[in-house]
Amino acid sequence: MQCARTVAIVLREVYLIRGSFSRILPLFVWAGVDIVLWGFITKYLNSITSSGFDFVPALLGAVLLWDFLTRVMQGVTMTFFEDVWSRNFLNIFATPLSITEYLTGLVLSSIGTSAVGLAVMVLLATMLFGLSFFVYGVMLVPFFLVLFMCGIALGILGSGTVLRLGPPAEWFIWPIPAIISPFVGVFYPLSTLPPWMHYVARALPPSYVFEGMRAVVHGESASPRLLLLGACLAVLYILLACWFFARVYRYAVRTGLIARYSAETLS
Amino acid sequence: MSSVLSVTQVYKSYGETVAVDGISFDVERNEIVGLLGPNGAGKTSTINMVLGVLTPDAGSIFIEGLDIGTHRSQALQLTNFAAVYAPLPGNLTVLQNLRVFGLLYAIKNLAGRIEELLQQFDLRKFRDVKCGVLSSGEQTRVSLAKAMLNSPQLLLLDEPTASLDPAVARDIRDTIRHFAAQEKAGVLWTSHNMYEVEEVCHRVLFLSRGRILLEGDPRTLPREHGKSTLEELFISVAREPLSLEVE
Q: In chain B, whose CA is at the least distance from the CA of A20?
């Protein structure tokens, strides 16, 4: 693996973001809006309940963690979509760049862009609504790690899907986090879900993060065993997503789709 | 010394349609080979297979002795291309595009190499201009500069002068000829401009329906087949390939 080739993918994204206001804003605007909206909702809930339960770490913290996963996924897909939108596949895949180097470049770009979103969310949540990360303690590290890996897996899966189905398929990708969120119990315990949804939840790594987060907020401890299970599932999904992308790429090279990508399908 | 490019019995079909039907040819060092033929003859499919973005159904392609199927990265490190249908991203400046592609080819002393190419292709005044706002001729020059970044051993040019004015096209032809002569590189060149092919190419391959019908020196080939010009021969290949096949 040549580092320079991976750096090329990241550098291209830096150039594009640096020179485009419409690329800079989405890095943090929607995440910021979410934090402000849910910040006021949690303040309101705190004011109308007499139980003394603090909704800020339970709800606002959950929104922040979920938005982080979404930003990570979009960081990968946005970098990939730049090649779709500029019809750059022929140029880029006719270079010595390998799929591993390309995917590593997408992941590194995502780390950069999601860090911007996370920084803005943390700033707003702590400054405006008093969210304290000390509540979660050291468990915050595995929480973020599992969500990061899950976001990477979803991003690569989404990119592979668009590579296979053509540019219009990008509209399948944007709603993925929204479709998953009811299953992973971002805002409610998994016990709330009917049994069939519970089975799906167990296969999704973020479920273990949000269950663990709620346990910590309620003064209990998050299960390290379940978080480890979530991390192992996330690693498995990254490997499966990479396998899927590589398989789609080989299909695209075998059929000529890479060279004629704007045609969307070969039939 | 082995050929820069060696294509052996390469076959490619898209469903029922045969695009390339068992062609074989070599490109030697310092040689410019013209790949000619009517639209749909299989020229672009052939180039795409050499570039590793299309897998042949059968046959083998070796670049500097490296099998593109099994040593893709190493083979493509020695190769580059420019094609009218593959402009560089229009949302990056000339300099940014050359830097990104220079890194993809892991070029040493990239900044110096870029300056050389900006000078060579008269692109200095456009260095900070986004490629999307350049004229088609200027974009072609940027693509050619990109194609020269790694001083490739094998250069693939798909209609490189199609959108250039005659003066610039002549400069580009001189540059490519000089490059092939000095760098010990081989060039595979497709063009529909027969005057250009006659001027630049040492050898031509006429493709029709995925097969090589004729091969030879573009200056003598027309007479050998009873035609007065290369263009006349091209039209015969395009309209009546069967009559040439039986000759």
A: B91
B46 class by beta-carbon count within 10 Å (0-12 exposed, 13-18 middle, 19+ buried): buried
Q: Higher model confidence: residue A188 or residue A259? A: A188
Q: Taking CB atoms and an 8 Å cutoff, what residues of chain A touch B63?
A: none
C-beta of residue B215 within 8 angstroms of C-beta of residue B206? yes
* Closest C-alpha among B35, B135, B155 to residue B87: B135
Any idea what DSSP says for residue B211?
Answer: E
How far, CA to CA in Å, does B164 sit from each of A139, A195, B138, B161?
62, 67, 8, 5
Per-residue model confidence (pLDDT) at position B245: 54
pLDDT of B169: 87
Question: What confidence tens digit (pLDDT) does each residue in A164-175 have?
Answer: 998 888 888 989
What's the rounded Cα separation, in Å, for the pair B88 and B142?
8
Which residue type, as a one-letter code, is found at position B85?
Y
Which domains are assigned to chain B? 1-24+38-72 (3.40.50.300), 78-192 (3.40.50.300), 206-247 (no CATH)
Q: Are A8 and B53 within 8 A, CB to CB? A: no
* Interface membership of A126 toward B (CB under 8 Å): no
| Candidates B53, B93, B103; nearest CB to A258 | B53
What is residue B33's predicted lDDT score, i.e. its pLDDT? Answer: 96
Q: What is the pLDDT of residues B100-136, one digit of tens each?
A: 999 999 999 999 999 999 999 999 999 999 999 999 8
A53: helix, coil or strand? coil
Q: Could you give the ipTM of this predicted complex? A: 0.90
DSSP string over B136-187? HHHHHHHHHHHHHTT--SEEEEESTTTTS-HHHHHHHHHHHHHHHHHTT-EE
